[in-house]
Amino acid sequence: MTAPAPAYTTRTVTGERDLAACFQLRKDVFVREQNVPEELEYDAYDAEAVHVMAVAADGTTLGTGRLLHGPAAVAHTGADRTVGSLGRLAVGKEARGLGVGAALVRAIEDAARDHGLAAVDLHAQTHALRFYERLGYEPYGPEFMDAGIPHRAMRRTI
């Protein structure tokens, strides 16, 4: 017996329409739910990042995340050019608990491999540490605040 097909797929963002859907989801999750100031949510790195998204069969955007690589990632990874930076991972309320977040992390790791990277760093909100640990990420360094939310740096060799 084969497993049922997932109710969503993950893919790399292509075009402005996809990017707008990802930005809207990030606004819903980070700005509206978590009260991150909108001017902090969007940055110059968005233009250079590889964005991924999870899309339901009906076309609804369920989740998104981004990968910084090359010069854009250096400030986030301790200047190691072989390490990418996973960030802005967001899953809409209706899609939480469906495995969307884990699927997006794996899609970002695939993109990192495609760019020749050896590891992926991220800055996890402390409430999400266990989620990332289950995916093989290890915390390092002290807790720090970002947009008023406690975070820890984490890394996984891919």
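The above is record 1. Record 2 follows with the same two-line structure.
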Amino acid sequence: MTNIPVTTWSLEQTTPADLLPAAAPDGDVRIVRAEVPSPEFSRFLYASVGGDIRWIDRLSWPYPRWAEQLARPGVETWVAYDHGTPAGYVELEPQDDGVVEIVYFGLIPAFRGRRIGGHLLSYGAARAWDLGDRWPGLPETKRVWLHTCSLDGEHAMANYQRRGFKLFDTRVEEQPEVSAPGPWPGAHAVRPAAHTGSDLRGQGAVRAM
């Protein structure tokens, strides 16, 4: 298998005032928390959003592992709907000392380029900042962070920086070059020219990274 150099950027917000919200898109776009943990639904979102941008880490997860991840206190999935159809999602995960990671964020390819991505990222970051309000026992959020990488397209970094995320670390590593699996085996995976989504975990906790 061929290795390729991949640059990973880590970005953060250290105060709620860092967040620069995007304007809400026109039309019937709603963002709703998936309050009932559902491995089936979460795997659908993961495969549908990440199929053309090489999200592969969770594809092999068995059902119990999905269930365990989604049942962790403070883990939240916020889903954007365009006229009632799932368009993308944000997954939040609390860590130690009031840190919250935006683990995954992205749009299903058909919904990219409609100004939904900036709005969804803004909303997800805001929910990261008030995560402790919904989960008794969790500390107040002190920092929100994420990864992005060079496999996510030329606009990924700019998208995060426009929302007020600031770069705090850059790494370059060799990673195996893998094909984009598509949303399901045999599907034709096409990487669109305009890309607003990104995998915030991917290869070894990076793939948007």
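Residues 116-129 form the longest helix (14 residues).
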